[in-house]
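User: Write out your own:

AI:
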Amino acid sequence: MISWDIETSGLDRNHDLITVLGLYDPDAGLSTVLRFVDHTEDGALKYVDNLEELITQLVETFDAADCLVGMNTLTFDLPFVQKQFSIPPTTVAQWALKTFDILEMSRRVLGRTFSLDLLLQTNDFTALKIASGKDAVEFARNGEWDKLAEYCLSDCVLTHQVHSRKTLVLPEGYHYRAKHNRPTSPTRQMLLDLSNLPAVRIAHQKTISAY
């Protein structure tokens, strides 16, 4: 089960770049971050010269994986990777079929969303996120590659731990409650049995049509 996550220079997959991609699978001894960008002479971000080699490594890793896990992977990360790295839709669809994305499943099947930090807090994890997506953008702009890699990989580790739980308490995040005019306190919670895979597969099947 490979947990993965990307950091980007912005939210627009048509124009912004993928700066790093983390891969984590403790059973296979996999713990690495692929860096796809560097700076031009004037300080702008550009893709590295060996980009195609890194993309090949990524595709081979994903193709060989039995299971891929992530947070918001099916809505954000996979479409971003497909667009920026020109991955064939059929390949991405195969990755989506073996993806376990708790947030996407919850959004589509249960109608609730939440941040990774809120999910961690609700389930009494001792470790929380060490930075934010906005911080990651600044790390890349400033060339703080070690900080960027550490943040990306830490999110992969936390996401792997979340998806390894047998049960999870799913919170209902603030933004979803506000959008649907629901009370913001207390947060409503739902117990999820992660052995209930049919519900997860339904979420994935509905998502594939987007690719």
Q: What stands out?
A: The radius of gyration is 17 Å.
